[in-house]
Amino acid sequence: GAGVSQSPRYKVAKRGQDVALRCDPISGHVSLFWYQQALGQGPEFLTYFQNEAQLDKSGLPSDRFFAERPEGSVSTLKIQRTQQEDSAVYLCASTESGTYNEQFFGPGTRLTVL
Amino acid sequence: AQSVTQLDSHVSVSEGTPVLLRCNYSSSYSPSLFWYVQHPNKGLQLLLKYTSAATLVKGINGFEAEFKKSETSFHLTKPSAHMSDAAEYFCVVRLNSGGYQKVTFGTGTKLQVIP
């Protein structure tokens, strides 16, 4: 079956540009997470959805970051006016509801801001 | 509040010798604990998870971990390292509190396996 997919896999943006990163979770998975992984670091939590509700966005680093999941499936992470410090791999994970259920991770989108 | 500490950023072992990757956590409530592996240019893959059913958890590829509440530890072990085990390993704490999920990753341990 299909896993979590993310697009684009690679994105190069000029400083100041807006970008949109897409995540297609596994069909039927209730929860969806976004993480930011800087080079040589562990993933850092950004935000979390349960169905279409954004339950926690405490990890978003600034108001330039915005995420949505309007129909409870596909999610988009948008970064406005990108800065060099936004360069990282952005990971999406989905899971069935329940704390013990495995998070299935997508391959990530590598964002490079020049 | 919760946190995860992976005590070693790099571990180097010879092929065929035991592996020990250390993880300590703190959490206000009983968390669930996971170990993930990330091979270069590959996605994160679940190795094993602690779900409170048993303190010794067996995972894939011969890895296992023991949950020790008194020591707040969840160390990952393998009796005999293989070259294919060279990767980065992440310890993860996950807490479900009032329907909200909090997930915290450790900073990772890079495992080098020497032939």
How much helix is in the residues of chain A? under 10%
**What's the total number of strands of chain A?**
11
Overall pLDDT of chain A: 93
Query: Into which percentage range does the β-strand content of chain A fall?
Result: over 45%
Largest sheet of chain B: 6 strands, mixed
Question: pLDDT below 50 for ≥5 consecutive residues: which ranges of chain A?
Answer: none
Rg from alpha-carbon coordinates of chain A: 13 Å
What is the count of β-strands of chain B? 12
Question: How many helical elements of chain A?
Answer: 0
Q: Tell me the distance between the termini of chain A.
A: 37 Å
Largest interface: A-B, 23 and 24 residues
**Helix-strand topology string of chain B:** EEEEEEEEEEEE
Encode the helix/strand succession of chain A as letters.
Answer: EEEEEEEEEEE
Task: Jot down its keywords.
heterodimer; A: 114 residues; mainly beta; 4-stranded antiparallel β-sheet; 11 strands; 48% strand; B: 115 residues
Verbal overview:
The complex is a heterodimer of chains A (114) and B (115). Chain A has 114 residues and is mostly beta strands. In chain A, the strands form 2 sheets. In chain A, strands 2, 4, 5, 6, 9, 10 and 11 form a 7-stranded mixed sheet that branches. Chain A has a 4-stranded antiparallel sheet with strand order 1-3-8-7, with no helix packed on it. In chain A, 0% of the residues lie in helices and 48% in strands. Chain B has 115 residues and is mainly beta. Chain B has no helices and 12 strands. In chain B, strands 2, 5, 6, 10, 11 and 12 form a 6-stranded mixed sheet that branches. In chain B, strands 3-9-8-7 form a 4-stranded antiparallel sheet, with no helix packed on it. In chain B, a hairpin with a 5-residue loop joins strand 5 and strand 6. Chain B is globular, with a radius of gyration of 14 Å. At the A-B interface, strand 4 and strand 5 of A face strand 5, strand 6, strand 10 and strand 11 of B.
